Amino acid sequence: MRILITGASGFVGGHVAVACVRRNWPIHVLARPASDLHGLESQTGVTVFRGELHDPAVIRQALADVEAIIHCAAKVGDWGPVEEYRRANVESLRVLLDACKGLGLSRFIQLSSLGVYPARHHYGSDESMPLPKKHRDGYTQSKVESEQTALQYHRDFGVPVVALRPGFIYGPGDRTVMPRIIENLRTGFLRYPGGGNQALNTIFIRNLIDAIFLALENENAVGEAFNLTDGERVSKRQFIEAIADAMNLPRPTRTPPLWFARTVTWFYEKIYKLAGAKQAPPYSFARLKFMGLNLDFSIEKSRRELGYRPRVSFADGIKETMAYYRAQGWGSPPCE
Questions:
Q1: In this structure, what DSSP letter does residue 132 have?
Q2: In the chain, helix, strand, coil percent, each to 5?
Q3: List of residues 6+ apart from 161 with CB closer than 8 A
Q4: Number of domains in the chain
Q5: Per residue in 56-84, pLDDT tens?
Q6: Which positions ≥6 away from 57 have C-beta within 8 Å?
Q7: Which of 154, 198, 238, 303 has CB 3.0 to 4.6 Å from 294, enough for a Cys bridge?
Q8: For residue 333, what pLDDT is reported?
């Protein structure tokens, strides 16, 4: 099928585009004028449309003869005004959805996030849990609103939306989060608030790609939301230590109480907001959620209704991931 992919210059979108090319599916890619598509433009069957996602004219061109859409584009981050995230992640999505009305698409895959759930401990939370109306950070708030907007277009206009909620996505090619983790390990900045034994909701990039293709092919998925992880329990400590060992970096040892980490984080966020800081503080609630909360989510609905079976274990996924970063020169020389 011919697919429109947004965000193909990013980590997830880039992997989606490559996977489609390997299937010999013709794809349309909508990318900003300055986006680096890493040679994707030279691939057979790839047509690139340069422009902004909020431009209806460019969207109409990119949608010509398209059967399905995989919407990966998003403004990401853990700091900044909610209005900026809302413009990028909600209002631009609305322009795209408006252009989809009446096209007879087979599928519209909305890449959401497990971050849409309440910012608290989770122990097997599933899709029946109501989403909060308000989150602390602009990115998560906009992800809730964008998912709800997409599903509303399904109910009101018949756009065949499927919302996928992956956890923390890791794998070769991430240019943002994994490099930051490695750098924080190098500087000794990382801590384990609450001890480090809390679950982390990991998903290897190829497992996510499998789920996307299942959602493209499964008629019963339309109008539904699905949690996605690697399907096994991985603790914060297990995840971070795997990175540290692979990079020949010291393992973190400090385990401040969660209440203390919350207090420090509140203080930092307050000061940075009062100062109008453009950069995130070293301690933010988004980062505290990642490192301090138990993030265990059920994927039984994805197994049952999508037929999702994670093919790559965490052990194999993190091994492949860290081999990529060592090859990129991120590792430290072995200790004498």
A1: P
A2: 45, 15, 40
A3: 108, 109, 110, 150, 151, 153, 154, 222, 223
A4: 1
A5: 999 999 999 999 999 999 988 888 888 99
A6: 51
A7: 198
A8: 54
